[in-house]
Each structure stands twice: as structure tokens, then as C-alpha cells.
Amino acid sequence: MPDPKEPQPPKPAGEPTADDLLSEMDDASLHGDWQAERERFRQRLTFRLGDLPVVDHGITVGHPVSRDQRFGIRFDRGHAAWLDDLFQYRTYSGVLLGVPDDPERQFESAMDRVKILFSFYEATPCLLPPTLHKGRRRVRASENAVERLEDWSLLPFVTSIALLTTIEPEGPDTLSSVAVIWYQDKFGMPDEAVLAQMRAIDWRRHAQPWDW
Fold first, then answer.
1. Count of Cβ atoms closer than 10 Å to residue 115 Cβ
2. CB–CB of 203/169 below 8 Å?
3. Spatial contact of 149 and 138, defined as CB atoms under 8 Å apart
């Protein structure tokens, strides 16, 4: 059975991540070295748990995780969903020379990244139509060549991939998720134009249902 909390982004090469070390701790616990591995992990931290600032909520009602202030959105058809995961990156990260001229390659790349981030997601991601940036620039083929004008067209500079989850619209006991891709010019939460597009998503067309 697929698990909506399973996705793991690709790990960069180099120093082990916290997840790597915790995984090593789990493996070590099977061989009696759990305490040693836990101390090894702690030595890599720049702080101690006992030194962290604390917000004391006193006696609370309900489960403490329910305090989570989720980003939510209500769709035009009436149901609501919350944001489970958000991944963002520079659309043209790695471009050093020239001007990219094929937005569809970026769309394909984002779709492929959905498969990496959310390996359990088998439905078709929802790609929201972006607003293109267009202009002209002065270029020369060589130092002595005649200057000419060249058209350019670019996507917004930040690619966003999110997983939205809802217990509607099929019923109160039905959980489903939709992977959404959109473009905006700054890192952060979606702007009003994107939110308007999100509210119009055809949920049933893109949803990944979860069976319990």
C-alpha cells in the first residue's frame, strides 16, 4: 500500500546528511552499537537539545501535533486541501551561457522530479499554466560582428512542486493527494495568481487515492 509520507528527495554527494546518520543509527541498533552511533551523530550537531529555546504551552487539549498550522486552500468545487510537502528550486539553475529557449524541457524536467520526490505518486501531476517573460536583447556573434536584436522567452525564475492532500471530495473516509507544479518569480508560498489557478484544479483528474 503506498504511503503518502514515503517521498525522499535525492541526496547530494559529499557529507552525510542527518537522515543518513539516523539511518546508520537504526542499523547500528541491530548490532548493539546504538549508543555509540547516537553520540557520533550528536557530535555533528552545532547545538544540544537541552540548550534550545522552548515555547511552553502548558496543559493542552487534544493531540499536540494538531497545533500544526497547515497551509490550506479551498477549491472552487467546495472541498479543501492542505499542503503536505513543498519543494522549490531555481528554474534555470546551472545555466551559464546563452538563453534557454525551450520551456517544454523545463516542464518535462519538473515532471520527472515529481517521480523522484514522490515515488508513490502514480497519477498525472497538475502543471499550472505559467506566465512567460519575453523581451529582446542586443547580441553579437563575434567582437567585430554587426549587433542584432534577439528575442528571448523565459519561465518565472522559481519552480515549485507541492503535494496537496484532502479527505474530500469523495467522502470523509477517503484520502487523496495531488502533485502540483507551478512557476513564480520568488521563493515562498504561491502568490494570488497561482492560488486562483489552484482553486480551479480538477482534483479527480490528478488525484492519487490512498486506500487504508
1. 13
2. yes
3. yes
What 8-state DSSP symbol labels residue 5? T
The conformation of residue 144, written as its DSSP 8-state character, comes to T
pLDDT, tens digit, for every residue of 62-111?
777 665 666 778 877 777 888 999 999 999 887 766 677 788 889 999 99
> Which of 83-97, 145-159, 190-204 is predicted most confidently?
190-204
CA dist 204 and 208 (Å) reads 9
Chain-centre distance of CA 144, in angstroms? 46
Asked if 85 and 7 touch (Cβ cutoff 8 Å), the reply is: yes
* Three cell numbers, residue 174: 477517503
Q: What is the per-residue DSSP string for 17-85?
A: PHHHHHHHHHHHHTTT-HHHHHHHHHHH-SS-GGGS------S-SS-GGGG----EEE-TTS-EEEEEE
* Structure confidence at residue 172 as a pLDDT band (50, 70, 90): low
